[in-house]
TrEMBL record:
Coiled coil: none
Organism: Alexandrium catenella (Red tide dinoflagellate)
GO molecular function: hydrolase activity
Pfam family, one: Hydrolase
Keywords assigned: Hydrolase
Signal peptide stretch: none
KW Cytoplasm (keyword) present: no
Designated name of the protein: HAD family hydrolase
Domain of life per record: Eukaryota
Amino acid sequence: FGSRQPLQPGTSAPPRTILALPMERPLRVVCFDMDDTLWDLSHTYVRAHEAWLSFVRQVPGGMAIAEAYADPYGWEETYVGIFRDFPGIEIDFSRVRKEAFRRACVRFGVSADDVVEPSYQRFMAERNRPALFDDAVPVLKQLREMGLTVGAVTETDAVLEDIPDIEGLFDFKVVASAVGIGKSDERFYRTAVQRAAELQKEPLLPEECVMVGDNYNKDVLVPHAVGMRSVWFDNPESYPRKVMGQLPPQPPLVCMGRIARLSEVVDVLRPRLPAASL
């Protein structure tokens, strides 16, 4: 049997191998996606969009903008243009959103200076009040009590430090806009393992880390490619599936667990923890 070399704190991640260990190592780190995993993104987003509309309607000429963008999901064409004009910008959705607001102003001859930044602040005030799933905070607390290191590993544009309900529940954070790469890139998850290794101050194997998220492509397949384990939150109401039309994966699945409620993750992880944690 082959093995992977542990990731040493302060060193770059080793090349990925595809050799398997003869038995699973206990889990030491659990990483969570945010949007549609810990909270209902659609509910949160609609509320934030309404706050944005409320501001825009008060600006001279803003009623035309509000009418054109009344649908919270009516920005896709604008986003496509932004992604085309600014390659790679999608990992920093705060920039995407501000550019979308600017283009809406230009379209209707409204001063962007009067709208973009203040309306963005209104939007984010609600974005940072996410509609947390009822079991999100209890699950995070329970996993920490079980001895796991808990990380926020996400592409969200919500400012995690501005969400009081989850304050102090994460040992480390890896946010796409901050590290400059997104979850579709294996380097993103190598960075997450590196952060956890530095925090623990001892060698850490990718397979001792598990990713929990709703996007099968980004939260399961990519972590799997770097040697991490994963739990797929099968959420039919998630933004990728409900709005973007992403289809659920076909078996066989490469995740070690498939859950319908976040609280179910505890029972999936419990048998894979060190004996001292049980």
